[in-house]
Design goal:
Elements: H1 2-9, H2 11-53
Helix pairs in contact: 1-2
Length: 56
């Protein structure tokens, strides 16, 4: 119980919570960012392949 009280009432406990939340937020943001970039890359490759198939 003292650990929980220390976590929410001391400066180092609050900073620990802030760091933990920041790391969780950052991991979610990076995973979404990389997923979006990978999807953009696939779409760009498909667009270029479709462009090459069109006879001129």
């Amino acid at each position: 119980m003292k650990a929980i009280v220390d976590l929410f009432s001391t400066d180092y406990g609050l900073m620990s919570i802030a760091v933990i939340l920041f790391v969780i937020f950052m991991s979610i943001w990076f995973s979404r960012f990389f997923k979006r970039k990978m999807d953009e890359s696939v779409q760009e490759q498909q667009r270029l392949q479709a462009k090459q198939r069109v006879p001129r």
